[in-house]
Structures are given as C-alpha cells and as structure tokens.
Design goal:
The protein is mainly beta and about 400 residues long. It is built from four helices and 21 strands. The two termini are about 40 Å apart.
C-alpha cells in the first residue's frame, strides 16, 4: 500500500512499479553555471542525512461513502555515504526508512444522483518500509561506467533492482552521450489476503518484472547554457492490478515511453541559474502525460551567511487510461476506477533553501501540490474524481563534505 501512494505523488506515470518516496517527495538541483563536468571521481567524501514529511489533505466528509476521511502521512529518513576510491572509483550507498499511517481509497462509484463517492479503508493503516542501495562508478579519461543494486522490503511487497549505466564524452568534452539499463524483480504479498480474499488472494505470491532503457545526450551550448535530451522505454510484465482496490483488473503487461528535455541557463546578469525540464509520457494503456518544471537557483550573501534560494513550480496533466471507468464492466474486460489512471491536472509550487557553512550544507524544502480533474490542457473528462490527492511536503537535510 505504501507504493500506491508514492506513485500518486509522481502523478500516476508509473503506477505498476514501486518507486522511492524520497525521490518522489524531494527536489534537487545546483545553482551553478552550466559548464562541462569531466569524468572525474569526487575528491571528497560526503555524508548526508535527509528527513522528509509528506501529508495528504483529508477528503471532504460528504464525498466519502464509507471509511475514514483521513489520508496518508509518510515520514522518510535517508542516510547516504559517497566516497572516492583510488582516484578512479566511487561508491555511493544509501539506506532509507519509511513509516506510513492513514487511510487509503478502495474505489470510487457513482451514486443515484450521479455524484462520485469514495470508499475508504475503515481503519488507520500502519506500515513501514526499508530500502538500501549501492552504486559503484569507474571513471575513465572520457567517460564513466557504473553499476548499482537496490533492495526494498515492506510487509506486503519485496523488490530487487539491478542497473548498469555509462557516459562517453566527445567533441572536446562539449557533448556527453548517456545510456543506462535496469531491471527489477518484485513479489507481492498483500496483507490479510486470507480474510478479505478477492484481489488480495489473486495477487498473493504473484510477481512483477521490469526492464528499463534510457539513451540521452547532453550538449554544452556555451559557457552559460546546456541542454540534455533523452528517450526512455520500460516494459513491465506480471501482476499489475492493484490488490487493494474493490474493482481493478489490468493487463499483465505495460509498455511505457518517455521523451525528456532539461535546459540549464546561467543568467550572468542576475547571478542565477534557471532550470527548465519537460517530460512527455505515453503507454499502451492509453495514458498520455506532460510535465513541465521550472526553478531558479540564486546565491545570496546575508550578513556573511551563504544562502541559496530556489523557488520552483511544476505543472502536470494527463489523459485517462483506456479502461478507466466508474461503471461495472463485463468480467472479461479490463477496468479500474483508480484515480491515478484518470484524466486530471496538477500544480505544485515550492521553495528550496541551502545554507553553506564550511564543509556543511544545510538543505530545507517545502512544496504544496494541488490537483483537479478539469485542470488538464487536453484529455479532460466530465467524470468527477474526488479521490485525487492534494498534499504538502517538508524536507530537511545536512550534507557533510570531508
């Protein structure tokens, strides 16, 4: 169940696969001019601690057919250690702890007046999750080669991931070619399957597999600007239905494609860095999504304090899956009333702050996320989706370089 809400945070573009709550709930960027970074191993060790709090807004009482109106609260603690090895290698390791509490939507239906109502879990859900990952990188004169392993464990889901990535610098290091491949092996074990049956029994002991590919290129335009373009492909296969929903029957495979662009521009006149990101997503379930993110990173010297501020805004909209419905379709057809597969739009606004003091960097971030079924530029539908989530995130962290 933890994963289902993490996926809501990233706007339903990877519903069937587990993801990291920390990566979904926090932002990261550096306010520096866009210049070419050679394939050089880090010189210093870095020890990082991060805490993130995620709180969903309660559902309106009048729209809840059954269950609690209180939604999820998630606390995330992450520890990370990055160290160089023999000037040509680096090892990046991290461990993450999550605790979750709150109620979860089981489904949405239309009442006699044609209004959408949400069925929620009747009791507060309490869950924990532990992640661990290790990544090793070899640095060459004109490129890098890296490998990684990732494991995740919670009471109803286990996951193992492996990855391989590399870069090659050409054109006098002004152009960098990027590539990666990763795979995951997941196993489902829904809680209380013997009590509730249904989708939980169907999913118990079932597996999921995924393979992801990414190819990209980063180009230094001049000493102030860079542009990165990339194409990604993921294929998922196995049990992709949500075992906790009252009406959910999805295909056993899913092919996802993304096209992304990241533009960095150091505004020399203002001493600030502008980041502009765009991501297009589509899959063979009929979901189509666009995401635009913009932020500005600016350094300030306040009474001798070195501070970086980064206001940011993000807009996302998507089309519904072909089989998203609130009706009761024939048993042989695919169907889901999962709000994450519906058509909607979402806006998030936030602020990141960094305070630099000698070898220490203190990080703080705040973000507010709003969503509605009629906020999409395209693909909007008339169907109400009251289960769409609004949430607030707050994060605090410290990096120690030594």
């Amino acid at each position: 169940m933890v994963a289902r809400q993490r996926e809501a945070v990233v706007a339903a573009t990877n519903i069937a696969k587990k993801g990291s709550a920390l990566s979904a709930l926090t932002l990261s960027a550096m306010a520096i001019p866009c210049v070419s970074h050679g394939a050089v191993a880090p010189e210093n060790k870095t020890l990082s601690v991060r805490y993130t709090q995620y709180q969903e807004e309660n559902l309106p009482v009048e729209r809840v057919k059954f269950g609690s109106t209180g939604r999820y609260a998630i606390d995330v603690l992450q520890l990370r250690f990055l160290t160089p090895v023999d000037d040509k290698y680096s090892i990046d390791s991290s461990v993450q702890f999550e605790t979750l509490s709150g109620a979860s939507p089981y489904g949405s239906t239309l009442n006699d007046t044609g209004q959408t109502e949400v069925t929620m879990s009747g009791a507060t859900i309490e869950e924990t999750r532990v992640d661990a990952s290790v990544a090793a990188t070899r640095y060459f004169k004109e490129g890098t080669l890296g490998t990684s392993v990732y494991i995740s464990k919670e009471n109803d889901y286990q996951s193992l991931g492996l990855g391989l990535s590399g870069t090659i610098e050409i054109n006098q290091k002004h152009t960098t070619l990027l590539g990666s491949i990763s795979t995951s092996f997941d196993e489902l074990s829904p809680t209380d399957a013997n009590i509730f049956g249904g989708g939980r029994t169907d999913a118990d002991g079932k597996t999921k597999r995924s393979v992801s590919l990414y190819e990209g290129v980063t180009q230094v335009i001049d000493k102030y600007r860079t542009l990165q373009l990339g194409v990604g492909y993921t294929r998922l296969k196995g049990h992709l239905s949500d075992p906790y929903r009252s009406a959910d029957k999805r295909p056993s495979s899913r092919e996802q494609t993304t096209v992304s662009a990241q533009y960095r521009h150091f505004l020399n006149t203002y001493g600030a860095a502008w980041h502009l990101d765009y991501r297009f997503y589509q899959d063979d379930w009929g979901v189509l999504a666009n995401t635009i993110t913009s932020s500005v990173w600016k350094d300030f010297d306040v009474q001798g304090l070195k501070i970086t501020l980064a206001p940011n805004v993000r807009y996302h909209w998507q089309h519904a899956a072909d089989f998203y419905t609130l009706d009761s379709p024939p048993a042989e057809e695919f169907y889901s009333n999962d709000f994450r597969l519906s058509a909607y739009g979402a806006i998030a606004v936030g602020m990141d702050l960094q305070y630099h003091h000698k070898e220490l960097v203190f990080n703080m971030g705040f973000s507010q996320y709003f969503s509605a079924e009629n906020w999409g530029l395209t693909g909007s539908q008339d169907t109400e989706t009251p289960a769409l989530v609004n949430f607030t995130t707050f994060s605090f962290g410290v990096d120690y370089h030594f």
